[in-house]
Amino acid sequence: MNSFGQQPLGSPFSAASTAQDVIAGVDLSGRNAVVTGGYSGLGLETTRALAAAGARVVVPARRPDVARAALAGVGGDVEVVAMDLSDLGTVRAAAAQIRETLTALDLLFATAGVMATPERRVGPGWESQLAANHFGHFAFACELYPLLAAADGARVVVYSSGGHGITDIRWHDPHFRTGYDKWHAYGQAKTANALFAVHLDALGREDGVRAFSLHPGKIITALQREMTLQEQLDNGWVDEHGNVVGEDFKTASQGAATGLWAATSPLLADRGGVYLEDCEIASVTGPEDEAGVRAYAVDADAAARLWEWSVAATGAGPVGGGAGRRAARRS
Q1: Is residue 24 part of a domain?
Q2: Considering the domain boundaries, does residue 21 fall inside one?
Q3: How much is the pLDDT for 92?
Q4: Does residue 296 sit in helix, strand or coil?
Q5: How far is CA 134 from CA 111, 200, 248, 267, in A?
Q6: So what's the pLDDT on residue 331?
Q7: Which of 11, 57, 256, 273 could in theory staple to 19 by disulfide, Cβ–Cβ 3.0 to 4.6 A?
Q8: Average pLDDT for runs of 10 along the chain of length 331
């Protein structure tokens, strides 16, 4: 179990903190960042904050033209590359393009995602939420790992969700061959995101690569695009006009704050592999609790099992082993 590391550490920020609060005074000049989905919602707020702090930001996007239009007013050094997380061919092509232009990658944000979608099959028959939210980001991070290892203390920030509490990995039927439930599919994918960060951190530690997962909070963004207005009304999230009325909902800037804190806080320098919420390390909680992280989502054995299964599924290459330090010694 990794739950021993899930101890709050007294962050100066909170659920009310914004992206601007967290990034204030942070200088990212000369740093390179990649933000999947960095042109809408939380991703756009993340890109905006990173660019304002001086980072060069690459935004992989399924709709490059839409992304360029959305990012036109952001300013700074921002580049868009084409990538569809559900199509591993485009994932590998985007990673290759990034490897050609960068010599090191300091920050990788796995921000893009889908939620509660109708049943779809992609690739070799994979369930689409698991494919887009986990397999795509898994393969992308593995392809970019040499750049992460070449950086001086890279961080990978993986967006999970409180939705991970819906279910553990369904090892018996991860692709829902025996009946589909869109919320269980979402919950499984978010658990996979958290476990991915646990094992990536374990493998990358020797190279100075640390990984974190997080719950950004309850926010209405394009993530809900495949839910009907009636569903959101029934959940108490919005009113009949689409205005947010749900209790404890955050703005997009507040939702991006925890990811930026994960990427930049010196308090997390030796705390990788943990699950965060509200700009703090989350406590391990039980199924009756809305907040916190379930023990199964930070279980080291489960994380290793998921990693090996994901390698077999995607054909991703090896990660870790001190490659970054060896490269530094050769240079």
Answers
A1: yes
A2: yes
A3: 98
A4: helix
A5: 11, 13, 27, 27
A6: 39
A7: 256
A8: 76 97 98 97 96 98 96 96 97 98 98 93 96 98 98 98 96 97 96 98 97 89 58 61 68 96 96 97 92 96 98 94 51 39
From the CB of residue 315, how many other CB atoms can be counted at a distance below 10 Å? 11
| Token pair in block for residue 301 | 């054995």
Q: Which residues of 32-54 are buried (b: 16+ CB within 10 A; e: fewer)?
A: bbbbbbbbbbbbbbbbbbbbbbe
Q: Is residue 30 part of a domain?
A: yes
In a domain, 72, yes or no: yes
Axis-axis angle for helices 182-204, 136-150 (nearest 10): 20
Q: Which of 149, 158, 146, 123 has its CA nearest to residue 46?
A: 158
CB contact set of 276 (below 8 Å; sequence gap of 6+): 212, 213, 214, 215, 258, 261, 262, 282
Which residues are bridge partners to 210 per DSSP?
Answer: 155
Cα gap 308→323, rounded to integer Å? 20
CATH of the domain at 153: 3.40.50.720
Enumerate the H helices of the chain as residue ranges.
Answer: 19-23, 41-52, 64-71, 88-101, 128-130, 136-150, 182-204, 229-234, 252-264, 300-314, 323-330
159 is catalytic: no
Would you state the pLDDT for residue 329? 39
Q: Parallel, antiparallel, or unpaired: how do β-strands 155-159 and 210-215 relate?
A: parallel
Strand, helix or coil at 20?
A: helix
Residue 268 tokens, joined: 């997390």
What is the pLDDT, as a whole number, of residue 64?
97
Range of the domain at 166: 3-318
- Number of independent structural domains in the chain: 1
